[in-house]
Amino acid sequence: MMVEVKLVGLGKRYGPVTAVHKVDLTVRDKEYVTILGPSGCGKTTLIRMIAGIIEPTEGKVFIDGKDMTGVPIEDRYIGYVFQNIALFPHLTVQDNVSYGPRARDMPREDQMRISKRFLDMVKLLDKMGMLPGELCGGEQQKASLARALSSGSKLLLLDEPLSALDSRVRVDLRYELRRLAKELGLTTIHVTHDQEEAQSVSDRIVLMRAGTVVETGTPEELYTRPKRIFTANFIGETNLLDGWVLEIKDGVSVIELRNGGKVKVNQADRPVGDAVVISVRPEFMFPADEGMRATVTSITYMGTYWRVTANTEDEEEVGFDTATLDENLLTIGKEVYLAVNPKTAVLYPRPNDGVQEAIKLE
Amino acid sequence: MPTVKLVKLSKSYGDIKAADNLDLEVKDGEYLCVLGPTGAGKTTLLRMISGLLAPDKGKIFFNGKDYTVKEIEERKAALLSQTYALFPQLTVEENILFGLDIRGADERTKEQVLISMLDLVRLSGRSDAFPRELSGGMQQRTALARALASGADLLLLDEPLRALDARLRISLRTELRSLAKTLNMTAIHVTHDQDEALVMADRVAVIRDGRILQIGTPKEVWDEPATPFVANFVGQSNFFTGEVLQSSPLTLLRTPEGTVLKGRPSDLPQGTSAVLGVKIGNTELTKERKGYLKARVERIIFEGRNLHVDMVMDSGQRISSKVPSWRKGKIVAGDMVEIYWEESKGTVFPMPPSGLENELKVE
């Protein structure tokens, strides 16, 4: 069975407010796609239109090539997991999970077999006789997932499925979610505001802001070569530095930064004299003999590396990582020169409204 | 900026011990994070310190004086909860000045406090706005300003960033910490988020079942975990079981398969049944040389600065590792790799009496 989801010009207006504006997207069979973005970006409205919980005001949803306009949620044949755990509190875990098969009047034997299969998959077989209230948060959400899967659908929609859980539980569950989706060959659409979660589970990320899609790509594309400043800032951490293109030679641009330093970037698509912004991840900036001058303001242990923050000459804060802490070189108050790995920096035209406006979340 | 000392504090709800003979000392001007899973007793702890809740047993000292039964107002502690709890019908200004109004402060004092608070939380242009007109981050900053305007010198923060988006949470971490530091306040911040605790705290206290398992600098808690739970809760670990061969100058552990693993020195007697924990970020893998153990790479997930690598050992045990992203393509699913770690990154613990699986439960 193939499940492909196609959105064509999908939009939703509430009076004068546009929650989602003309989204075009194809989610391929067995693909795991996350819709990522800050609060209010329209991601929840989008997944609810796919599910049939919200009617779009424009555009169409196709599942397997079939126009879903007017088709209610129960006839779209999808598994849906909500952010706030929505189990029936008075039914046992197993009865919750076998709810779908039971509603479709499957023989009792099949109900039991199917529910056991998915409870085994989410490792809750030993707790199937308990009531939801007797489980902890992560287990409840696993039961919700088993219930969504027991519908037999090959399309799984996850609406912030991990948001209500402790962060440590979230970390474990996100790897399990992807494993399960891949083992079962599901087409999955997962909504989240958490960029780390999106990176860990996705084949592709759709990044949204203010009702529109900013950029779509694999986690690696969006991290290493983001096309937009908003993406560079939202996915992972980065330093955004203002400057001008000083010269271009053999495909390498020399950028003079506003903070006085000069850095090289292996990218040459902006003309000499252009105002630019460069994005450099903290792991690609390092102390050197020359570069931009900065004063160390804080040093934080991150477990497998140290995060150092420093103030440049124009009072801009930059962050960089170091695997080992040489205290002769790095202590608070000390001056350092910072260089940038030219292969990893990304160059953008400086936005007219300024960098702050370009990266604003809300 | 008081010191806070809790001595043998206990509080039970029926059979559940929310605080179990708990001792804790917070230094003057310190930013302490209390880190633990839901239900560990974090909120109960803050409520007892603030005076909202009386302990069943034990004592609370501020600056060496017994405050166990003192009224809330006398404690000069500001409690900020995870939901912002602003008055929806009052403006930012009215919310911030609420406490001062109640106490009948004069106009000049109010004016001064308001200006400095708005400036501090960067809301100077928004004093006339109502909470619903503000973003989540701004609402939380308003709540913070209100808490601070009360003139407190002890800041109690109950998951203050939990309700915010992940991205916003990260940017507010440094702000919140530097605010507390600027104002010379002692801060006790409870959270379930290990990254938040590592980044914000001078010291981290790891709590579970109403007990403090370990207190130390972020580096101490990360590098020298006191229990397997701490090793796994703060930054995820792989665990290997075996029998102790020697405990100094390194601890040597022999696995059931006969492999000898190395970790930091310990005081475990020879022959003890034990477990070695090593952070997944410190679990190194190579194809170049021999390591402690062999594993087959099952999948590799690109996570930005790191690759997350899931592996299966011959025994069927699953382990994970985080390696820098530049190694992408150099290791692929299906590869056989050798696993090793720096000896100082392995910690050996006695086998937990309740079993390893129970010990490691994160909720």
Summarize the structure in short.
The complex is a heterodimer of chains A (362) and B (363). Chain A is α+β, with helices and mostly antiparallel strands and 362 residues long. Chain A is built from ten helices and 20 strands.
Task: Please characterize this protein's 3D structure.
- The complex is a heterodimer of chains A (362) and B (363).
- Chain A has helices spanning 43-51, 93-97, 99-103, 108-121, 137-150, 167-183, 195-201, 219-224, 229-234, 355-359; strands at 5-14, 17-27, 32-36, 58-63, 66-67, 79-81, 155-159, 187-192, 204-209, 212-217, 239-249, 252-257, 262-265, 275-280, 285-288, 292-301, 306-312, 317-322, 335-340, 346-349.
- Chain A is of the alpha+beta class and 362 residues long.
- In chain A, helix 4 packs across helix 5 (137-150).
- The two termini of chain A are 40 Å apart.
- With 363 residues, chain B is of the alpha+beta class.
- Chain B folds into three domains: 4-223, P-loop containing nucleotide triphosphate hydrolases (Rossmann fold), CATH 3.40.50.300; 236-279 and 341-363; 284-340, Nucleic acid-binding proteins (OB fold (Dihydrolipoamide Acetyltransferase, E2P), Beta Barrel), CATH 2.40.50.140.
- In chain B, the strands form four sheets. Chain B has a six-stranded mixed β-sheet with strand order 6-7-8-3-9-10, sandwiched between helices. In chain B, strands 13-12-11-14-20 form a five-stranded antiparallel β-sheet. A five-stranded antiparallel β-sheet of chain B has the order 15-19-16-17-18, with no helix packed on it.
- In chain B, helix 2 (92-102) crosses helix 3, helix 2 runs parallel beside helix 4 and helix 3 (107-120) crosses helix 4.
- The longest helix of chain B has 17 residues, at 166-182.
- Chain B is globular, with a radius of gyration of 24 Å.
- Chain B starts with a strand and ends with a helix.
- The mean pLDDT of chain B is 92.
- Chains A and B meet through helix 6, helix 7 and helix 8 of A and helix 5, helix 6, helix 7 and strand 16 of B.
